[in-house]
Task: structure prediction
Amino acid sequence: MMNLESCVAIEKKPLLSVEDAQQRIHAAIVPLIESEIVPLKQAFGRVLSQPIFAPMDLPTARNSAMDGYAFASENFSATLTNVGTSWAGKPFDGVLNSSECVRIFTGAVLPDNADSVVMQELVTVNGTQIEFLADVKLQKNVREIGEDVRVGDELCSANKTVTAVDLGLLASAGVKNVSVIRRLKIGYFSTGDELVSLGTRLTHGKIYDSNRYSLYGLLQNPCYQVIDGGVIADNKAELRRVLSHAATEFDVIITTGGASVGEADFIKEILDECGEVNFWKIAIKPGKPLAFGKMGVCYFFGLPGNPVAVTTTFDIIVKPALARLTGAIVNKPWQLTAVCTTPLKKSRGRQEYQRGFLQQIDSGEFQVASTGLQGSHILSTVNIANCYIVLPLECSGVKIGESVIVVLI
Ligand code: AMP
Ligand code: MG
Result:
């Protein structure tokens, strides 16, 4: 027979820490490698499957950094004769002789033997005679071949997420199509008998399904191909049927609700029966009941139902996991230290992600304040937050003026 002490010991079995959960997910996830070729614009926000090397030098030709006059410095004298114009896109084809210069515009190719451009503000024009100020500097304002990029240089590394600047850089090198990792197929579902969809009249005890709207926004990413799977009732057979079928169609399933151990919570049981549970409880608040595992080759995240727990666990647990799956290089989010300007209540035992508003005051110091009530159903204090205040397991509250760790939302 168990004595009271051993019962307590079982009850108090430590929950998986947030860091351990993140590590277990990291270890379980195998990033996608299948790739596809897409036109450059469609690569925005996608992950490159291989490095891209420069097919040409940039600039491809020596050109002017200024509107002005170009000449060969060895032929320079205080007055030069203007013998033509080099326009951007329409170069001057001749060769400059002694005492000659050409009118030139920014981006226009320099005549072969020219090596200097003097800006137009530093000359006096008398017909074709161009007089230079006494102290003009020679061999300036020329953009040399390859000074930006050399042919064969790596323009973008493999697994880089393509940014707006990457698009510009690749376009400047004439790269028309690129190879990117294929998109991650994600299906997301709400579960619960109480949920009704927008546009339906609320009857007593029903609520609008908000989690699918939050997830819709959270899942906007060019690397994801997302399907809204709708609402599934708290019916074990129905949940099993829908989810096990979904597991054959998606790379990732995300559900909300039913992840706990109430009479109407079936998610963990179904994951256990149809796949494998890696873990299903984390020492995180909000969001303790969170099931992670696999159904066949499909990764499964069973998030809690409470709307604040959904957005928080998505940010802290799911988002880094999805990023790893896409093959992207994932950098750890920045952690800042800020002075807390409101008292924070906390009980021990779970790492809390309280919603805060972070600002930098004139002295440069970061200050953070709680956005208000911290219940896991209170979305109205999340939508005014710009950060999570991370309170570690052992913390038992924060007084005004104490330092806390924050991560940006
Ligand atoms: P559960 O995890 O299913 O026990 O749900 C916990 C709480 O979250 C309950 O108050 C549910 O009504 C609420 N909830 C579950 N799913 C949703 C949803 N999709 N939208 C809004 N609230 C939800
Ligand atoms: Mg429920």
